[in-house]
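Hi everyone, sorry if this is the wrong subforum. Our group has a chain we'd like a structural model of before ordering constructs, and none of us has done structure prediction before. Sequence below.
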Amino acid sequence: MIDCNNVIKEFGDPPQEILHGLSLCIQDGEFVSISGKSGSGKSTLLYLVSTLDTPSRGQVTIDGRDMAKMTSKDLHEFRNRNVGF
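Answer:
Right subforum, don't worry. Here is the predicted structure as tokens:
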């Protein structure tokens, strides 16, 4: 299960919010489509749930594991075993 709880992602200086308090839950085996206009945050969301980037605020958990609490080594191993796109 992928669970995003109040995820905010900011870029730049001064910071500009790209994702604004996003919350979603994707169950195991569920198919999800992400669509939207250019610049709406689709790729940013994919980077966050694939652990290639971290949220500015909020929490991303996958199968009950908080991605922010994993070591760099554990994240690399997790991606190698579980992530592909």
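For your construct planning: The radius of gyration is 13 Å. The longest strand covers residues 16-26.
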